[in-house]
């Protein structure tokens, strides 16, 4: 199914919190330049975990490898829990996961954070540089959208989209923004279709 046909079957409702990814390691290189140097010296020796073939962390790592000019070996898992557990046990070398998932492990000294994929450093991990700061021209952000079947009455779509904007909810919304920001996430605005369309154009 093409992107155009996919979007035609859906009605965009609202965008949900967006999040940056963090490149975690257990006991490997403690700096990005050292990781890249080691990977170039022995292509394929260093491996990385993902939550499955074709998952966002897998695709993000593929883009990272292309940007860095390196080759790593993919070790797919059937979920984030097993992947993170094996990373912390030293069975795999690297993992792209959300800042929210791994910041506690970094602060506890159980994992190392090499870089975040966002354009700016995460407030939750201010000492972890961005990939751009580390010399890798790659940025990525996960965002989620609430969609409804095409033909859903606009009144229902509008009511769902405006729930978080009601005057009585503004304080809760500000608190949510603050809490998400501490973990490298943010509330995303704009139209889901417009954002997907822009991404499609950038890939041409």
Describe this structure as you would to a colleague.
With 204 residues, the chain is of the alpha+beta class. It is 39% helix and 20% strand. It is built from eight helices and nine strands. The strands form two sheets. Strands 2, 3, 4, 5, 6, 7 and 9 form a seven-stranded mixed sheet that branches. It is elongated. It starts with a helix and ends with a helix. The C terminus is likely disordered.
Low-confidence stretches: 170-174, 182-204
* Helical residues, percent: 25-40%
Task: Give the terminus-to-terminus CA distance.
Answer: 18 Å
User: By CATH's scheme, which homologous superfamily of the largest domain applies?
Assistant: Periplasmic binding protein-like II
- Anisotropy-based shape: elongated
What is the CATH domain class of the largest domain? Alpha Beta
- Overall domain count: 2
Question: How is the biggest beta sheet arranged?
Answer: 7 strands, mixed
What is the CATH T-level topology of the largest domain?
D-Maltodextrin-Binding Protein, domain 2
Rounded to the nearest angstrom, the radius of gyration is: 19 Å
Mean pLDDT: 77
Structural class: alpha+beta
Give the tally of β-strands: 9
Write the H/E string, N to C: HEEHEHEHEHEEEHHEH
Portion in beta strands: 15-25%
